[in-house]
Amino acid sequence: MLKLSLDREFLSPEEVQFFHESFRRCARRIILATTLAGSGHPGGSLSSLSLLLVVYSLAKVDPKKPRSPERDRVIVSHGHISPGVYSVLCEYGFFPEEPFLMEFRRAGSAFAGHIEQAVPGVEWNTGNLGQGLSAACGMAMALKLKRLPNKVYCLMGDGEQQKGQVIEARRWAVKYGLNNLIVLIDYNKLQIGGDIHKVMPQMIKEEILATNWNLIEIDGHNFQEIFQSLRRAVKGETNDPSKPTVILAHTVMGKGISFIENDAKWHGSALPEDLAKKALIELGFDPTEIDILKEKRKSYKVSFPHQPHEALSVSITPAEQTIYSSDTKTDCRSAFGWALLKLAQVNNVPGEPPLILGLTCDLESSVKMTDFKKYSPHAFFESGIQEHHTASVAGALSKEGFLTFFSTFGVFGIDEVYNQLRLNTLNKCSLKVVCTHLGTDVGEDGPTHQCIDYLGLLLSLHDFEIYMPADPNQTDHIIRNVALRPGNIFVGMGRSKVPIVTKVDGTPYFDTNYNFTPGKGDWLRHGDHGVIITYGNTTAEAIKAWQILKEKNIKVSVLNIASIKPLPEDDLIKASELYHIVVVEDHYVDTGLGSKITSLFGQRGIKTKTVLLGHKAPSSSGSPSELFKLSGIDAYSIARAMENLVNG
Known about the structure:
Elements: H1 13-37, H2 42-58, E1 73-76, H3 82-91, H4 97-103, H5 132-145, E2 152-157, H6 164-175, E3 181-187, E4 190-191, E5 194-195, H7 196-199, H8 204-210, E6 214-219, H9 223-235, E7 245-250, H10 273-283, H11 289-299, E8 330-331, H12 332-347, E9 356-360, H13 370-375, E10 380-382, H14 387-398, E11 403-409, H15 410-415, H16 418-426, E12 431-436, H17 454-458, E13 465-467, H18 472-482, E14 489-492, E15 497-498, E16 522-525, E17 531-534, H19 539-551, E18 557-560, E19 563-565, H20 569-576, E20 580-588, H21 593-604, E21 609-615, H22 624-631, H23 635-647
Parallel strand pairs: 1-2, 2-3, 3-7, 6-7, 9-10, 9-11, 11-12, 12-14, 13-14, 17-18, 17-20, 20-21
Antiparallel strand pairs: 4-5, 8-15, 13-19, 16-18
Helix pairs in contact: 1-2, 1-3, 1-4, 1-10, 2-3, 2-9, 5-14, 6-14, 12-18, 14-16, 19-23
């Protein structure tokens, strides 16, 4: 692997020659891999190839230790150029050529159609365009927080500059002084739909300058210019060394294969075998190699080991419990803010890199992060109204050995950024998403702000755990619990003040003796005529309904399901033995907990009489109590539903 030195201003003739020969070898692999797979993106891979070759030779990365903590980071945002990325990594010894060519785009292979961290040397699963720069920002900030001198290189396509998230990331990078971030844009001026300026007119150069980045413009196939621009950026020899730098590289789609150059057709189409052979001849290679490899690929077993890429662990010291008395009038979000502050006080040591980070989007006071910000201002990141970027940058930070909390309203932290959270799951992040203002509990803000679809969305994210505290005490227990555990975790709550959940004797149920356990329910009340199952901000209504029914001599249980995922199946099976079941939630019925429970019962062949209470359609403006009554999830409606079940 050629390693370049910044001590010299120019590449030597031998180094330039090396790059030309490497380009030819990598171009061969690009053509072979895509044609053998029958799909892929050869055009962009070839236009980015020169940039990839110089970046990986300059970056501090080691094929023998691709996950070294003190490495530079290379993010390829336009992940569809995987043939180019894999070809260069192969060229530099990260893995042999054969498994790449034989396994590319095959089921179970590490060498996926869009780059994945399963391949050594790949830092982030990309391909959903516009998210790579946000991830690069997270890594660049992590390096700064750790006080490491390393750089982050982010390669991007020109078409993805149309994405709004890219602008969000640019602003964030400048605000937080990420001068260790260097972006290279493959400006080949073509995308799937053709000319980028016809698909969506855009002034890329002017937009970069408008967001206050350094800009260097080069010929993206001139190895001397690529090296010199990178050298300037790394050494801080730019207009403003305190700012990040963009290298706008003018390139040619399909570079190196004369008959596909500047043809958008080959952006996302593999060459048929006859044209692939013609391309190999032009590159100076034996065209019959395709026939040989094609036959070999038929019987080749997918076997290349996937590289592990779990998030770095973080050692958190537990925070002291807070127990709210039975007469306390507060909300779960305030309990979250207080728990977060207490965690920071024992883990974020002044003068040392912080362990706990907080990010929000212009809602610091609403999500109760103000005290955390005051205590750890260097660990708090206000991103403005830029939720897409924030969800991605928070995910990247969570992989770097920080306990990272991203908090905003439910409609912004779930609905608006579902795709970003989805990419966080694929990248095995360890993000703690805490959303407030869930459900119609938002009240007068109306349907646009009433997130009543969150479980349906979150349950589709395969690795997200989901917890919904019933009151401030359980909120404290849950936040302290998730702070000590890895993985992507969601904690949700409403806006309003809620009563403290008590035992029958009036003392707090979630007291010092309570131990929150994922996958376990809370039997708040006991009775053998049926069971009310609920969670979150309808728990108080369920307990009121229990009292109403008790006065009618209908004795039911109340089961609180704070752990939505993992689901407390043992408790639910126990609940099914009571036969009469009412599930109540401030959520759409079709995609909420009730549908999850009935699905469980159906799969287990369990018969019950079950009523699901929740929303059938969007609600309206009004106070939470009015809206609960309107949708039939208030105490009297719950009691009536159970009474009808028992007496029916």
